[in-house]
Structures are given as structure tokens and as C-alpha cells.
Amino acid sequence: MNTLTTGEMAGTALFALILALLAYRIIRGMPKMAGDITAFRKRTLVWTQVALVLTVLQLNFKAGDWRFGIILGLIVLFTGSIWLSARRYDNARQAQSAADQQENNKE
């Protein structure tokens, strides 16, 4: 099995940090997104599934070499975290909308 060199580990850590910062900015900006977030949620789910399939294929066909599999795994975590946050935000927004409608109907 190939071992990761110090430079490869540093590059992987830098890539993970960049993805974490991007995910943080995207997740924090969700309330300001114009339009329907459901479409955004569906797109991120598709990209999460694509990245997951590529990761599994990489790990199956490139036995012993984890370098590209690690990068793909980080992308799966990135897209998956954004999808999960978009899903939670969309569900919370729909629940708030339903509660507002019920409140308006009582009046």
C-alpha cells in the first residue's frame, strides 16, 4: 500500500480546509438565497450521489492507492453537508410557512 508523503498530507489538509470554508459560506448564505431552495437541494443531492459513485469506483479499481479516493471522499462530505443543510433549511422554512398559514386562518 502506498503511503502519503508529507506534501500530499499537507495538500489534502489544505483542500479539506478550502472545502470547509466554502461549505460554511454556502450554508450561512442559504437564508439569503433568492427563489426556491428545493431545486438547489435536488442539485446537491445529485452531485453527492455522483461523487459517492466515483469514490466507490475509485476505491474498487485502484486497490492500494488512496490518494484520489481521499479527495473524492472529501468532495462527498462537502456536497453531502451542503445537501443536508439545504434539506434542513427547506424543511424548517416549510414548517414555518405552514405555521404562519394556520395562524392566519385562526384570525
From TrEMBL:
Keywords: Membrane, Transmembrane, Transmembrane helix. It comes from the Bacteria. The chain crosses the membrane at residues 6-24, 44-61, 67-86. This is YtpI-like protein. It comes from Paenibacillus rhizoplanae.
